[in-house]
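user: Kindly work through both lines:
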Amino acid sequence: MTDIAVQSARLLSVLREKRPLVHNIANYVSMDVAANALLAIGASPAMVHAREEVAEFVSFSNALVINIGTLSAPWVEGMRIAAKAAREKSIPWVLDPVGAGATGFRNETVAALLPERPTVIRGNASEILAVAGTAGARPKGVDSANTTEEAEAAARALAERQGCVVVASGAIDLITDGRRAVKLGNGHELMTKVTALGCALSAVVGAFAAVERDAFTAAAAAAAVYGVAGSLAAKKAEGPASFRTAFIDLLDRISPAEVERQLVVIP
């Protein structure tokens, strides 16, 4: 496997040069932070969810990110239309299954979107376990858990079944396509105290997928840059509010060399 730190640094430079347009169907809570994270890292965000225009908007976007955090029937219809358009036009798209497993409606929404073949599925460990169950890919003997280590088998099985990349985020981030896998150990606990930073990571994964055809490399690079920025931002923060500001600043200022130097890859 090519050194992930080198690849991540390279792709950060590529992203900033190309400034991809990332179409987000985001939830109400995450729209602001996701859009600002994309702008800071060098992408162009669009927050478009109306069913009347999503297919058209997907057609000239470089990536699509669908986040199911705040669902309603019209939004779900827009998600399905957008995902279908992305699949048909071979545009990479990311599914963030926020709260998967919590309600039947969320599980039904995930089940409706999986046939459109997301390029990347990004969630926390519990969400990945729930999606794996919905997809019929959850290995026997895996209990519901909140750590990426305990969700690893389910993440690998889901990636293999869906033919996609799975990112299970947590204290350690796991990225796998079922065959390859990498674990990254950057970030900081303050990231769990600012709402929607996980959702914003999904948006950033979309930006990297827009400029790198190998979805595994793209997702790993996104998690790498995001985690290193979190580690560095925590050093400047006094609490969650100042961390949020410092983190957006770091996404804007972080250099490829810093990513390469600071990235922690777990053996």
The chain has one domain: 4-266.
